[in-house]
Specification:
- Helices cover 60% and strands 9% of the residues.
- The chain is α/β, with parallel strands linked by helices.
- The chain has 4 domains: 400 residues, Na+/H+ antiporter like fold (Up-down Bundle), CATH 1.20.1530.20; 131 residues, Rossmann fold (3-Layer(aba) Sandwich); 133 residues, Rossmann fold, CATH 3.40.50; 31 residues.
- Strands 5-4-3-6-7-12-11-8-9-10 form a 10-stranded mixed beta sheet, sandwiched between helices.
- Helix 18 links the parallel strand 3 and strand 4.
- The N terminus is likely disordered.
């Protein structure tokens, strides 16, 4: 009985029991609230109110909630930076800056006037209170992430504006705090500026280089995850040392690592899983513990302050969203998303009210301390946090659901058609464990992240042997594990056939495969061909796209993609598919794509990119003569990905110089990441497969020779 009584004493102090209660809330709150269509975030906050010291008192807001809550807040801001579409951010950075100024100035002006003239606070109290309205926390961001609309224009604008307004609000907080500490003079601002400058140099010059080196050298997922967390907290601590808030550093760490962590990858899956499953819910429950509803029923003045603060915060944030919509001709849905995300108050607001509450400006007649922000403001702030979080969650939930259903994001009014992702069934023939991980990661990066089609992995055995069968199942299991760690479904196929090419071709036909990702062939002897007989037979026996990869560095650490495109490539039936795959890779890892092509092909690529609304950085350079292809070796660096768009012999874009391609690649690009693409063909297939009639091969060879003769005659005419 004594043991039971010990555990039943409230607040609970047993760490195991505390952790169990928190996990039970995280587990059951979404399940119960889904039935009444209430956002999960509200459930976490309400649960914190119920179990916290101002509710039933089951749990105290001890150091564990402070630590995990702080980690959860930093994690939230880190995910916001990590999941941001940097290409879209560059396009909308001006809009984000303008929204940041709107969402800072409107609450500052409105809040100061109301606080000073209607609520009769001092001017410094009014300014500090208004800075609390101006700042906001992205508490509803997990909703946006859950619906998969994090890369929408309105979300990007809001995130960019959040950093601007929080930074300005924290500067005001630092200035007012310095006034009461008698430290604000010209040297204060000089020291603050120098410390921020030093921090920025270290953050943007040192951290990216260290991150790139580490992620290239160490490929273990656990090691990479620990490194990422170290970067986040190092950046956050550095921000605090420089006089900023830690959330700014966490967000900037996400921006830095954004380039090296693809949206669909095992590392990203682990980062999102841990944050959304533990740290962020802990933070939300901790916010709920601060709310004291009893204040509303005990003090009339506290009720008035709480209502006034909630109304001003909501109206000012809606006004800022409305001004942004009108300034940039955004849609109604964009305005709702901006308002929903920016209305939530939590992190910087809590920091400001607690600091203001602890500043003593004097004493009253009874000898009681006079605080810059009194108890009514403190309690009103907690109520305002609850009200704004509820409004933010409900509005964001509704508009995010609409955006997820409306794939066009409302851009038809601006003349942008809807993206229609191509059907994709990607097959990965696996045989070599050494190249398996790079092939699977490439296939994951190639596929459209919005489509949930599975990858197909294939192992072909030539005879029935128990040892080989076990080996095949092992390598297929390894491939499935790699893909599933990135939350990508996999269909594994093990089959027996007369040879590898036949097994691959039969699998392509049976599963309607659209593209095959395979590794480069290793020459067995001097008479062996560069691509090997298996790839040659696949090219001849099927019409689907074939991608032949040689990866020397991890795909997520590629600096840039250089694509060599032959003339008339735009006339091939597979033109849109290979361009779609290049765009997916670029958008996933955030690197630039440099196209070398003829002027006519360049125009076709530009038109396709615009019509499909691909959002990636790109440059174009002329490549009018395919025979100048080898000159590109001087532009391709070790950590670049060199993509060669080739063609089958009978296709429109085929050039006789393709016969020299194996020699050039093996001689001039031996130490380069390579990807050779054979676009799909929808013309009538040859009746023969890899063991086809030799006469058909001779006919194609004769056609090739004929084209060589014609080209030679044209050159003679040009010389004359």
């Amino acid at each position: 009985m004594e043991i039971i009584g010990k555990f039943l004493d409230i607040p609970f102090t047993n760490p195991t029991l505390i952790f169990f209660i928190v996990l039970a809330i995280i587990l059951l709150a979404p399940v119960l609230l889904n039935k009444i269509r209430v956002p999960h975030i509200i459930g976490m906050i309400i649960a914190g109110m119920i179990i916290g010291p101002n509710g039933t008192g089951i749990l105290a807001r001890d150091s564990s909630f402070e630590i995990f809550g702080k980690v959860g807040l930093l994690y939230l801001m880190f995910l916001a930076g990590l999941e941001m579409d940097m290409n879209d951010f560059r396009k909308n950075k001006f809009k984000g800056l303008v929204f940041g100024l709107y969402t800072f100035l409107v609450p500052m002006i409105l809040g100061t006037l109301v606080s000073y003239y209607l609520m009769h606070f001092s001017i410094l109290t009014s300014i500090l209170l208004s800075s609390m309205y101006a700042s906001h926390t992205l508490v509803a961001y997990p909703i946006v992430s859950r619906y998969g609309v994090t890369k929408r224009r309105a979300v990007t604008i809001t995130i960019a504006g959040t950093i601007i307004t929080v930074l300005l609000a924290l500067i005001i907080l630092a200035g007012i705090t310095g006034i009461y500490k008698d430290t604000v003079d010209h040297t204060f601002w000089i020291k603050l500026g120098i410390s921020i400058l030093i921090y920025s140099v270290i953050l943007f010059m040192v951290f990216p280089r260290v991150s790139k080196w580490f992620l290239r050298k160490y490929e273990d997922n656990v090691t990479q995850y620990i490194f990422v967390l170290s970067i986040v907290f190092a950046a956050s601590f550095g921000a605090e040392l420089s006089g900023l808030e830690g959330i700014i550093g966490a967000f900037l760490a996400g921006i830095i690592l954004n380039r090296y962590i693809p949206a669909v990858s095992p590392l990203m899956n682990r980062i999102e899983f841990v944050g959304n499953a533990l740290f962020i819910p802990y933070f939300l429950i901790g916010v709920g513990m601060l709310v004291d509803l009893k204040v509303l029923f005990s003090q009339k003045e506290a009720i008035i302050v709480a209502i006034t603060m909630s109304v001003i915060a909501t109206i000012s944030k809606w006004t800022a969203a409305w001004l942004t919509q009108k300034t940039f001709s955004l849609t109604k849905m964009d305005r709702q998303m901006i308002f929903g995300l920016s209305n939530g108050q939590a992190a910087a607001t809590l920091a400001a009210v607690l600091i203001g509450y602890n500043i003593i400006t004097g004493t009253d007649a009874a000898g009681e301390p006079i605080r810059l922000l009194n108890e009514n403001i403190l309690n009103g702030t907690i109520i305002m946090i609850l009200v704004t979080c509820i409004i933010s969650s409900i509005v964001t939930e509704r508009v995010a659901e609409k955006m997820a259903m409306n794939k066009s994001d409302g851009n038809e009014k601006h003349g942008h058609p809807t993206i229609t992702p191509l059907d994709e069934r990607i097959l990965i023939p696996v045989a070599n464990p050494a190249t398996l991980e790079n092939l699977v990661n490439l296939a994951i990066t190639l596929k459209n992240p919005s489509k949930k089609n599975p990858l197909y992995t294939l192992s072909v055995d030539l005879d029935v042997d128990d040892d080989k069968m076990v080996s095949s199942h092992q390598i297929l299991s390894q491939a499935a594990k790699l893909a599933s760690s990135a939350d990508v479904p996999v269909n594994t196929i093990a089959r027996y056939d007369v040879n590898v090419a036949s097994g691959i071709l039969h699998t392509i036909k049976e599963n309607n495969i659209t593209e095959v990702v395979t590794g480069f062939h290793h020459k067995a002897n001097i008479a062996d061909t560069f691509f090997g007989p298996t790839i040659q037979h696949i090219l001849k026996g099927c019409n689907c796209m074939l991608l032949i990869c040689k990866a020397l560095t991890p795909i997520n650490t590629i600096n840039k993609i250089i694509v060599a495109v032959p003339q008339k490539a735009e006339y091939e039936s597979g033109f849109d598919r290979w361009l779609d795959r290049i765009a997916n890779v670029s958008m996933q890892i955030g690197c630039k794509v440099i196209f070398y092509s003829s002027r006519k092909t360049e125009d076709a690529i530009r038109k396709m990119v615009k019509s499909k609304r691909y959002n990636f950085r790109k440059e174009f350079f002329p490549l009018d003569n395919w025979e100048d292809f080898m000159a590109l070796s001087g532009f391709v660096q070790v950590h670049d990905l060199f993509v060669v768009v080739s063609a089958r012999r009978h296709s429109l874009s085929y050039h006789h110089s393709f016969e020299k391609l194996p020699t050039i690649l093996s001689r001039d690009f031996a130490h380069t990441n390579l990807l050779v693409i054979y676009p799909e063909q929808f013309e009538a297939k040859q009746n023969a497969v890899y063991f086809s009639d030799p006469q058909s091969i001779s006919i194609h060879n004769n056609y090739s020779e004929l084209f060589n003769y014609l080209n030679f005659i044209d050159k003679l005419k040009n010389k004359e």
